[in-house]
Amino acid sequence: MLENLNMELNGVKAIQTTIADLDACFLHGFVGGQHEILAALPALFDGTPLYPRLQTSVQAMAQNTFIEGHFVTLAAARSSLQGTLYDLLRHYALTALGRSATTPTDHLPIAPTQTDPLLDSTREWLMELAIAGFARLEREAVTSFYSTLTQLRANPATVSHAALLTGFFHELITALPVKSTTDVPLLRWVDLWSRAMLDAVGLADPPPPIPASGTLYPLGVELRQHSRFVSLMIYGVLKQDDVAQWVRQTWSSFKATAIQGNELWLMFPQAQPLLEHLLQGKAMNLRDMPMLPYGDFLWDANAIESGKRFKPLDIALAYCGIGQALFVSPVPPIERHPVQLAEPIALTNYTIQDSHLYLKEGVALALDSRRAGLTAEELTGTTSLLGLLHYDVGEWSIQPLLTNNPAGKFEFAGRAGVELLRKPPKTSTVSILQERASRLLRK
User: Fold this and answer.
1) For the whole model, what pTM was predicted?
2) What is the CATH number of domain 210-320?
3) Interval 304-320: pLDDT, tens
4) Which of 45, 70, 96, 330 gives 50 a disulfide partner, CB atoms 3.0 to 4.6 angstroms apart?
């Protein structure tokens, strides 16, 4: 079935072209010269709730009338295009994996129920960036947002908004002044701008968690970061009765730029019990663990007890292999973007060459070098692996998380960090900064 990954993806190129055309408006700004591109946009959404809003917004922008609502509409339209691309790519991936697209239950997206003055300021700043254009940004236009960003970070209700905005803000500052349009990572910046604008529409209550009980097999770990924020993600399979579901636990934190390398793991001591079970190859028995509709745990240490030992690769092949009935929930609607496509896949009978994984079906998967995972050198001589299937820059790739070593034991990405957290040093950058912060609070 994996040979289906070699198929030409109908519709993907057309959507990518439309997104690129729209992004061109953000390069030089929305003051003049963008009317033809914008005028073609509403027809793509004919028959949807976005159509009348896009008509109104495009007509107003053609007359150089700019209000926040028009830019929110543009962000929604662009995110809808990326969401459609995500759905299309995921359909191809699930077909190739022989996996059903259905999920245990369907859940409606949660709409914002309240606004906040800080989010009002955020939308205004984002609108000003778009009007100016990323190639024409001046430092003062970016730094004017710093006070609002500081307050967003200090407000528990907006801390998740602040995580994305902090990375976007510092990425813009680092890139200024823009010397050439070729220096602008346009796709990435408009992605960040669109998501930030939609996040700034208002505050939404999280979806109610569902109590989950069963056996959890932790199988992999990933560390994601930008210069001032880091997330630790632990993946696994939850077996509830006859249903196997791919699940995830995430811990996140702001960080100082001085914290680098494996010391990042020291920021998550609360993850140590779960990581210890991964390290030892021991299952966990869950009883009424809170879980969001999209397969994300809200970790409760009181809902777990240690289970039996298991062989991680055997579990991965049994539940994540080709044709296995594994439930993998799609990400929430607002997060549906090709970069979020990450389907678990367990493989055997492969060879490693030139930073690619070659399968007997004639499929070649690029080894993902941009995400934290096992390298080609670490995979040499292995016979089976668990990874995440991605679609990057026009090709399918794999992020290897778990494999076996020549001695027959399992290896996983991030082992060095997990072992450092298991036995933390007496002195580290994290402990020094925590002590300094504690002293400041005592004064």
Assistant:
1) 0.91
2) 2.40.50
3) 999 999 999 999 999 99
4) 45
